[in-house]
Amino acid sequence: MKSARRGGLWLGVVLVLALGMYLHDPPWAGGITSGLRTWEEDPPGTRFRWTTGRASFFVPSNATTMTLPMRAVFPGVNGGPTIVRVSVDGRRLADVQLANPDLWVRTSLPLPRPTGRRYRRVDLQVSRVVGFPLLGVETGVVVTDR
Question: Which stretches within 25-86 are classed as H helix?
Answer without folding.
Answer: none
